[in-house]
Design a protein that fits this description.
The chain is α/β, with parallel strands linked by helices and 428 residues long. Helices cover 40% and strands 14% of the residues. Strand 1 (42-47), helix 2 (54-70) and strand 2 form a beta-alpha-beta unit.
Length: 428
């Protein structure tokens, strides 16, 4: 997610205008005679599973198999970078969008059916024979506040802290820190050893999501959900205490130097090279932890202050990866369904599990997760507390401003009052 495809404000405004026009039209319904549809020569795919990644390799295998069995060519355009959603919307506005979209369930993706950029996935879950395969909780994570299921879920995630125990030992810790005192107390030793205690992508979505989790240190799940929906951070005592906790960690030097200028890729590099003892990492990256580090990498929830009544926090959703059918793809739905269904077959499920991907569906035989980092992370469910994620709760048109406000918390000298004011301003 580090390569920007499109970020022009002018294009964004134009696209929004055109898509609003699309939304006023009638959505195309699934064909009632799909089996009689003419066989296409090509299916176009806009996919987040890029070359060189474990999922990108699996995608290439599935495409080869599909093309050999059907004679239909699958042409892939990679969806990467912060502008990937805008790029797709621009293609819809031009009427050139891909037939099938592989994306995650975040932000304005949840509004694409109402905007005419995707079609309701509910009938296709039935038509493609996946209704009873996909987990009900996963379908819920791909259903928006209007009750529209906008995509077919495939992969979920667990998103805890992960720690390199070798690097922790340099900071004087024999195990992952469990509270604020252990975190801040290890900073001096970590600096002396030239190791950052926690690496964070303070300038982008990765650090923003981490900050949002720390902000929940004193809040209940219901309180957090209400704040996500409507704002009101400055007026909430629990949220202010959580923001103040984040500021204390920042000012104590828990994060790497210049965290406000780090991005997701830099955060990963710091951890993978042993320059940082910990980071907030999702299961999608666990297979990228160097093999020599995996046995020494363990997961935990986010350590909290001693006076918090919460358990260590972590995220987990079924929104990491799924399929959306575009208006252009409706006329090819029978053949697109054959392609999508291949992803839910046992051999592909096993490959995804081997790549440390948390499945959002139940294959015939439960897969074996052999990645030690993932297995450690799954154990956090027993000791930690699930933290609400902003993706399906913050209004879609407020999400970028809210994310930017959360990232701003890494700026040196910024007070808790300034942070909460920025978060609340995102709702204006």
């Amino acid at each position: 997610m580090s390569k920007t495809l499109l970020s022009s404000v002018a294009v964004g405004v134009a696209v929004a205008t055109i898509l609003t026009g699309c939304a006023s039209g009638t959505q195309t319904a699934p064909s009632t005679a799909a089996s009689s549809a003419e066989k296409p020569t090509e299916i176009t795919l806009y996919s987040t599973m890029v070359k060189g990644t474990p999922l990108g390799t699996i995608q290439a295998d599935v495409i080869s198999k599909f093309e050999a069995e059907t004679g239909i060519k699958v042409t892939v355009t990679e969806a990467s970078g912060d502008g990937a959603m805008d790029a797709y919307e621009a293609s819809v506005a031009a009427g050139t969008e891909a037939d099938l979209v592989n994306f995650n369930a975040q932000g304005k993706v949840s509004t694409w059916v109402s905007k005419g950029a995707a079609v309701d996935a509910t009938p296709y879950l039935e038509q493609w024979g996946l209704k009873d395969t996909v987990l009900p909780d996963a379908i819920a994570d791909w259903t928006n506040s209007d009750g529209v299921t906008y995509g077919v879920p495939m992969i979920g995630n667990i998103w805890p802290m992960i720690w390199n125990t070798d690097a922790l030992s340099k900071a004087g810790l024999s195990a992952p820190p469990t509270n604020e005192a252990e975190l801040t107390g290890a900073v001096a030793a970590a600096k002396a050893a030239k190791v950052s205690l926690i690496a964070a992508g303070g300038k982008d979505w990765s650090g923003a999501k981490y900050a949002m989790m720390v902000f929940q240190a004193y809040s209940t799940a219901d309180q957090t959900k209400e704040l996500y929906r409507n704002g009101g951070y400055c007026a909430s005592e629990p949220s202010m205490k959580g923001i103040e906790y984040f500021v204390r960690l920042r000012d104590a030097g828990v994060f790497q130097k210049d965290a406000a200028g780090y991005g997701y890729d830099q955060m990963n590099t710091a951890f993978f090279t042993g320059a940082a003892a910990g980071m907030h990492a999702g299961s999608w990256v666990f297979s990228e932890v160097p093999a020599k580090m995996q046995a020494n990498t363990v997961a935990s929830g986010m350590p909290l202050p001693a006076d918090s009544t919460n358990k260590p926090l972590y995220y987990a959703t079924y929104g990491s990866n799924g399929w959306l059918l575009s208006p252009n793809g409706v006329k090819k739905s029978e053949w697109i369904g054959k392609f999508v269904k291949m992803w839910y077959e046992q051999d592909v499920a096993d490959k995804m599990a081997a790549a440390a991907q948390v499945l959002a569906f139940s294959p015939a035989t439960a897969p074996s997760y052999d990645n030690p980092v993932l297995n450690s992370a799954l154990g956090v469910r027993d000791s930690g507390q699930l933290a609400p994620l902003m993706d399906s709760l913050v209004p879609a048109d407020k999400q970028q401003a809210f994310t930017d406000a959360a990232s701003g918390a890494y700026t040196a000298g910024k007070t808790a009052q300034q942070v909460c004011a920025a978060l609340d301003a995102a709702y204006e």
